[in-house]
Design brief:
The chain is α/β, with parallel strands linked by helices. The protein has 24 helices and 24 strands. Helices cover about 60% and strands about 10% of the residues.
């Protein structure tokens, strides 16, 4: 290996790029290159450039004060350089050095900005990399390979400690020293890392122990939570199953009650309609009077015929013919008496007939009164039925308000009588087909419970009433202030699209005066089939709602999802316009009054019926009395007729008598025939009267039966409504409880109740469920005892355990590395000591030889200086604890320095500083030559080392250098002519007026050949 080339640019006086090429070995010897030039020409800058590129850090050694001093500073004719660079090239093709390159190029650059860089074969490198490479090549910036100006004396005059470093490098252990130094640094870093790791280890270990316990608790908690979750899921699944079964039963019962209610309401309506028809029928008193008059006329006709018949029979009696003349006077008196009696009887009959007519009129009046009372009773019964039904429905409707939390709405409706004109809720004012109920409920939203009122003054009263009673708040829609929403022009075209059912406002049936109300609520909302229809129309173009209740706002907001069916929720399906103007409190008072009036009519009806019975009895008595008097009158009339006939016969001849008898008999036969016809007519008239009474009795009984049936059906309807309301309340409670369970399930398990129910958990049966609930409580208590451990603890534990294991592994690795480094240092120390001792012996021997050559005799020696190794505080403490002081023989000795003994021939010198300048130079050269002989360097730079020698001594030095050139390449900077004669090539350095060093070269072999 030899130095092949030096390239210098911008370094000190070498402003221009300067290349120094060196001769390769020849004839078994390395080349000797001499650099000459006048003082100040910059020839020593070549040595400085080599020292700098080889890693010299001391600017003082480079003869400067600051780093930028090595960059060409400029001159009068040339500006300063911004960079200094030096590249040296080694040829290692012979592989004498243990480096891996056939050609090694080391470069260094320094910029005026302060930045610097090292390059090895064109690649950036570190300073340590350069030092190691040069150490392997047995050379370096501070080694014996570069002997600069002033170093000759310094080598002799420096202390033993300083001289030891020079000998270490000269002994060829520089590479090992660098390795040892790196090992020591690594050892210190390792100890620091071990200390830091142990501190972290001491910090992490307790935390890991705590986390380990927490992880154990967490694992225990997780097992408890798994069991708890399984039990809770089964528990909630059981509750869900129970609630849903009960809800299904209640709904089935409600369906059955609805069927019964509809049937009873239908029957009740039929009865009410029939009763109303009976009550609305006009009275049949005229028919009864006609029948009575017809019967009386026929009876009178019969009585008249009977009188005529009695007279004829009296005429036909023959006993009067045989009476004497003396009896004529008596008969005349008798006739007069009988006529007087007949007149009296006639008067009495007239009086009885008059009284009978009055009594008959009373009976008829009482019958009419009974009929009127009965009609009033039927009407009242209908009103009572209607009010009871409405009250029951209204109470059921109020229960909906209570269940839906509309307490303020209920309060306003209950007090509507003194608050003003209140029409009802929006849900009550509209009727909706079943298929559109969900869609329109969603579209109306909170406005379902808004109260429609007359004007803002009513709103003011309602709000003050709610505030005073602390009932809550409600929304009011005054008809006088509402403004309908404008309908967009595109609505008409959208209504024609497929899947569009129509405008929401058009799908509600309502009174015309509420047009503005429903226009405000629904606006231009479209009811569409489904979400796909809405997407096809364009979400955000217009407000839309699907039949399933998914709502699409014009803002682009979409609302939708699963909607649980609830019977107690306010809806268009639960509203009823029939009860819009119904007030529960007023209706209950009216119902009470109607029932009181009905009771009063019942009393009057009973009293009137008693009077009718008395009048009817009196009428019967009068009829009997009248019949008796009629019989008496008939007898008297018959007797008078007989007597008068007798008197007439007394004046008749037999022939006349016979003719009279024939006429009488004929008249009797005619009267008897007429009486037979009258008997038939009387029988018919009597049957008509009897049938009339029978029909009236049947109708009366039918009315009574219908009233009883209506009352029973009304009770059944009320019972159905109450049962439905009770079950509706129970259903609402169950559904509310189910929702509470669903909310509790989500809060406890973060999953929905439907999701748990769909997993098919086996439900608990009987006592098993109670035991599960107890177990759940115990598990929760166990969890409370374990405490709330964040699951991140597991992550932290794993991270801490990983750090712990990593630190533990690092500590083991560091301790192993520490042991390995300590072993390495010991091995390097042993190796360096071995090599140093070997090299020292050889150097000592060669030093004595070269000293004798140079001084032509004399003695020279190298002495190693040892001292006891200082103990560390830890060792002292350990020694103090053991109490066993070491003997002086056991104390470790370390090499502290090298002393030089030099005694020229004929002199006795005890102190090397007593030598003259030339002697010190020769001694130093002898030492350098001894080192080079023992440990040859690939190249050696000598910068005017022989300047203080005379020609004879210089000649001896040159002879030694020629001997040493067999192993080392020499580059000598000199003024000495003797030295120049030993050169294979000479470089001349000059400096012109611009302050820039210039280089001239001469190869002496070529010059001699020429």
């Amino acid at each position: 290996m030899f130095l092949k080339r030096i390239e210098i640019q911008g370094f000190k006086s070498f402003a221009e790029k300067t290349v120094l090429d060196f001769l390769p070995p020849h004839g078994g010897k390395e080349s000797i290159t001499v650099i000459v030039g006048p003082n100040g020409s910059g020839k020593s800058n070549v040595a400085d450039a080599l020292r700098w590129v080889m890693g010299e850090q001391s600017i003082k050694m480079l003869r400067g004060k600051k780093s930028e001093d090595i960059i060409f500073a400029g001159s009068e004719n040339k500006g300063q350089m911004s960079m200094a660079s030096v590249f040296i090239t080694f040829d290692n093709s012979d592989k004498k050095s243990s480096i891996d390159y056939d050609e090694l190029v080391i470069g260094r650059r320094l910029y005026r900005s302060g930045e610097s860089e090292y390059l090895i074969n064109g690649h950036e490198a570190r300073l340590i990399d350069v030092h190691i490479l040069l150490a392997k090549a047995q050379t370096g910036s501070g080694a014996h390979g570069i002997i600069g100006q002033g170093m000759i004396d310094k080598m002799i005059l420096q202390t033993a400690d300083e001289r030891k470093d020079f000998f270490d490098e000269a002994s060829g252990i520089k590479e090992f020293q660098i390795k040892r130094h790196q090992a020591i640094l690594r050892l210190d870093r390792t100890r620091t890392h071990i200390s830091q790791a142990e501190l972290l280890f001491q910090e992490i270990a307790p935390r890991l122990k705590i986390l380990s316990r927490q992880v154990e608790k967490l694992n225990e908690r997780q097992s408890v939570e798994i069991e708890l979750r399984e039990l809770q899921e089964r528990h909630y699944a059981t509750l869900s199953s129970q609630f849903r079964a009960q809800i299904q039963i209640l709904r089935s019962e409600m369906f059955s009650i609805d069927d019964s209610l509809r049937a009873n309401e239908k029957n009740l309506a039929s009865i009410q309609e029939e009763l109303g028809g009976l009550a609305r029928e006009s009275t049949r008193q005229e028919i009864f009077t006609e029948l009575q008059n017809e019967y009386q006329d026929l009876v009178k006709q019969k009585n008249a015929l009977e009188r005529e018949l009695s007279i004829l029979e009296g005429k036909s009696q023959s006993e009067y013919r045989k009476a004497g003349a003396h009896q004529v006077g008596w008969m005349k008196e008798k006739v007069e008496t009988l006529k007087n009696d007949e007149a009296e009887i006639e008067k009495e009959i007239v009086a009885i007939e008059k009284e009978s007519t009055e009594k008959n009129t009373q009976v008829h009046n009482l019958q009419n009164e009974l009929q009127r009372i009965n009609i009033s009773k039927v009407a009242l019964r209908g009103d009572i039925t209607r009010l009871e039904t409405e009250t029951t429905y209204a109470k059921a409707e109020q229960s909906v308000f209570q269940l839906t939390g509309l307490r303020a709405v209920q309060a306003v409706l209950e007090a509507r009588s003194h608050l003003g004109e209140i029409y009802g809720l929006v849900a009550q004012l509209g009727k909706v087909q079943k298929e559109y109920v969900v869609a329109l409920d969603v579209a109306a939203g909170s406005h379902l419970s808004s109260i429609v009122i007359q004007d803002e003054m009513v709103a003011k009263k309602c709000i003050e009433y709610l505030r005073a009673g602390q009932f809550g708040f409600a929304t009011f829609l005054p008809l006088t202030t509402l403004r309908p929403r404008q309908m967009p022009d595109m609505v008409k075209s959208l209504l024609k699209e497929q899947g569009v059912h129509g405008l929401a406002v058009d799908l509600v049936q309502y009174s015309g005066k509420y047009q503005d109300v429903f226009s405000l609520i629904f606006g231009s909302t479209l009811v569409v089939e489904d979400m796909e229809t809405a997407r096809a129309l364009g979400i955000g173009r217009i407000r839309m709602v699907t039949l399933q209740g998914d709502l699409f706002e014009t803002t682009g907001v979409v609302k939708g999802g699963y909607r649980r069916g609830r019977e107690d929720r306010l809806s268009f399906a639960s509203g009823s316009a029939a009860f819009t103007d119904f007030d529960v409190a007023i209706s209950e008072a009216e119902l009470k009054n109607k029932k009181a009036e009905h009771d009063h009519l019942e009393i009057r009806f009973e009293a009137c019926r008693s009077e009718l019975q008395e009048a009817s009895s009196a009428l019967l008595f009068l009829k009997s009395k009248l019949d008796m008097r009629e019989e008496q009158r008939k007898n008297v009339s018959s007797e008078i007729a007989g007597l008068e006939h007798e008197l007439n016969l007394e004046t008749l001849s037999p022939e006349q008598y016979t003719e009279v008898l024939k006429d009488i008999e004929a008249q009797k036969q005619m009267i008897l025939g007429t009486m037979q016809d009258l008997d038939t007519d009387i029988k018919v008239a009597e049957n008509k009267v009897n049938n009339f009474h029978a029909e009236e009795e049947v109708k009366k009984q039918r009315v009574f039966a219908l009233q009883d049936a209506m009352q029973e059906l009304q009770q059944a309807v009320n019972s159905n409504i109450n049962e439905k309301n009770r079950r509706q309340v129970e259903l609402a409670k169950l559904e509310t409880r189910e929702e509470d369970i669903a909310r509790e399930t989500f809060e406890e398990l973060r999953v929905s109740l439907d999701s748990i129910a769909s997993r098919g958990h086996a439900v608990f049966e009987g006592k098993e469920h109670d035991e599960a609930i107890v177990r759940i409580q115990k598990l929760k208590y166990t969890l409370s005892l374990i405490g709330g451990i964040d699951e991140s603890v597991l992550t932290e534990y794993e991270e801490t355990k990983s750090r712990y294991d990593h630190l533990d592994g690092q500590l083991k690795d560091l301790k192993k590395t520490l042991n390995d480094l300590e072993t390495l240092v010991e091995e390097l120390d042993a190796l360096m000591k071995k090599r140093r001792n070997k090299a020292f012996k050889e150097i000592k021997k060669e030093f004595a030889r070269y000293f004798a050559i140079l001084f032509d005799g004399g003695n020279a020696d190298l002495i190693e200086v040892y001292e006891d190794e200082e103990q560390s505080e830890e060792e002292k403490m350990t020694q103090g604890e053991e109490g066993e002081p070491e003997s002086s023989e056991k104390k470790k000795k370390i090499l502290k320095g090298i002393d030089i003994l030099a005694c020229p021939p004929g002199k006795r010198i005890n102190n090397i500083q007593a030598l003259s300048g030339g002697e010190r130079t020769l001694t130093s050269i002898a030492l350098i030559c001894a080192i080079l002989r023992t440990n040859p360097s690939p190249f050696v730079i000598l910068d005017e080392v022989e300047a203080a020698l005379d020609e004879a001594n210089t000649l001896r030095v040159v002879q030694i250098l020629k001997e040493l050139s067999e192993a080392s390449q020499f580059i000598i900077i000199t003024h000495n002519r003797v030295t120049m004669h030993a050169a294979d090539a000479i470089y001349g350095v000059t400096m012109g007026g611009n302050g820039v060093s210039q280089l001239l070269s001469v190869k002496l072999e070529a010059a001699n050949a020429s």
